[in-house]
Amino acid sequence: MRKLFQRGALLGGFFLLAATATAARAVWIDTDLSLGSPLREVDDGYALLLALRAPELRVVGVSTSYGNAPLPGTTARTRKSLGAFGSALRAHPGAASPNELDRATAATAALSAALRKEKLTYLALGPLTNLATFLQLHPEQAARIDEVVMIAGKTPAATLGFGPDEKFRIHDANLVKDPAAVRAVLASRLSILLVPVETSSRLMIHADDLQRLEQSGGAGLYLAKRSRAWLWFWTHVARTRGGPIFDALAVVAAAQPKLLQIEVRGTSFDENGQLIVRQRGGREVRFCSGFEPATKRFVLDRLMDR
User: Fold this and answer.
1) With the C-alpha atoms ordered 138, 144, 149, 152, is the resulting torsion angle positive or negative?
2) What is the distance in angstroms between the CA of the first residue and the CA of the last residue of the chain?
3) Cβ atoms < 10 Å from Cβ of 24
4) pLDDT by residue for the chain (306 residues), tens digit each?
5) Of 25, 202, 217, 229, which one has the greatest count of Cβ atoms within 10 A?
6) Of 224, 243, 246, nearest to 232 (Cα)?
7) Which residues pair with 58 in a beta bridge?
8) Are 56 and 24 contacting, i.e. CB atoms less than 8 angstroms apart?
9) 275: which residues sit within 8 A by CB, 6+ positions away?
10) Residues near 46 by Cβ (< 8 Å), separated by ≥ 6?
11) How many CB atoms lie within 10 A of CB 86?
12) Are strands 192-194 and 145-150 parallel, antiparallel or unpaired?
């Protein structure tokens, strides 16, 4: 009887693992990762490792874009980070500038090949040039993208200011770097989830968090060692309490959406070209307005090597 029970437990565990693997959400990550470049944003690195560590997700491909750094730099650093994180995935280089909108690249070819095999969710962590180009070149495959999660958009009252009196201001970077690409993606019929800077900036890493990551070793150590200068910049120049890991919240949106407050909103461009999110009117999207306190713990637990 005991042997039968043990066999049943093993079979049950096997089928549970199989079901989990089957249920994992297939995602494509498009990134302008600059992890390791002095004083450049490191949040793409956190997002990439988080996605690779999430059993709810199955990363089927990674493409690179200009943005936080020129394309050769983001591609090289993405490839190095993938290796450090224990992934055999390749990084497919895409557009080097917004002027390359509509030009076929290794990134658009690889995404097309992946979509021929299965539907997937697209995590846009940088400018949207690669995605907009793909939609121009392969419109027949657009319906194969279940959802686009992008870091962009703002509510009318958001200043994108940080530190004392919000004197340190940033812009809606992924929009500013290629407004035409954002317009093209919004003009499509794709389901879109906006994770704006005003929300994602509240997910912060502090000095003690970096210490914990370093002590965990492996990928956590690799990530933390390359985040020290960045954290210094945010706490001493912007004078914030910590460093925001904006792009990591896009991965949370794909892996654990129940941790987020998501609402249906309307979007439109104002006279200054900003993508404004309002209660109603304009292009309908889903909008992340907040997240649960448990989100920070969820992220850190997944990032640390056990």
Assistant:
1) positive
2) 35
3) 15
4) 544 444 444 444 444 444 444 589 999 999 999 998 887 899 999 999 999 999 999 999 999 999 999 999 999 999 999 999 999 999 999 999 999 999 999 999 999 999 999 999 999 999 999 999 999 999 999 999 999 999 999 999 999 999 999 999 999 999 999 999 999 999 999 999 999 999 999 999 999 999 999 999 999 999 999 999 999 999 999 999 999 999 999 999 999 999 999 999 999 999 999 999 999 899 999 999 999 999 999 999 999 966
5) 25
6) 243
7) 26
8) yes
9) 152, 153, 154, 172, 175, 182, 186, 267, 268, 269
10) 205, 223, 245, 247, 248, 299, 303
11) 12
12) parallel
Q: Which residues contact 14 (CB under 8 A, 6 or more apart)?
A: none
Q: Please tell me the distance from the alpha carbon of residue 211 to that of residue 85, in angstroms, as a whole number.
A: 18
